[in-house]
Amino acid sequence: MTEIERGGYSVMITFAGERRRLSAWAKLAGLEPCSLYARLFTFGWSLEDALLLPKDYAKRFPRAGTKRHSAIRWVEHEGELLPLKTACRRVGRSYQSASKLLREEGLSPQEAFEQAGRPRKPAKKVFVTFNGKRVPLAEACEALGLPFKGIRRRVVLCGWPPERAIAEPFPNDRGLARRLQKKQAKEAAA
Questions:
Q1: Residue 158 is assigned to a structural domain of this protein
Q2: Contact, 95 vs 72, CB < 8 A?
Q3: How many domains does the chain have?
Q4: Model confidence over 144-180: pLDDT tens digits?
Q5: Is-contact 35 26, C-beta < 8 A?
Q6: 183 and 132, same structural domain?
Q7: By residue range, what is the domain housing residue 110?
Q8: In terms of pTM, does the model score above 0.70?
């Protein structure tokens, strides 16, 4: 009979008719207590596998007991156990999509990884005519010494034409986009 009892700070394990603390079983198995704990509660191994498989069997797993270790969701990809985020990055799948499937549909990490969609396409570049040439907005901002994020905000959020966004002076002030929208609304109403 095998049994695991978790109470307070101790974990008692009954295996092969013997009842011992997790740390004592780990010592008998030649493991660190945190490794045995991770095998049982993080990786979800059966008690027999966690106690009987040799220490070097788990070399492909990250070291147990590190910060946030238990919060990491693990998936198997091409025979390797990886964190969900790393696996998604390697294959080009959307980690956000996989996380949403985990939260909202209650799928296991492996199922969420397999069903996750492809990531969104990157934002399209905004082009502007600068010195008679059509160049990306970022290059024009760099050449003029203007803040790219602020100019792009004017173009994308406020709907300004790129030439106007570059031509108007850019005050070093917070809340500029909101004030510019209010000013445009007042001008349009008048």
A1: yes
A2: no
A3: 3
A4: 888 888 888 888 888 888 888 888 876 665 566 676 6
A5: yes
A6: yes
A7: 72-115
A8: no
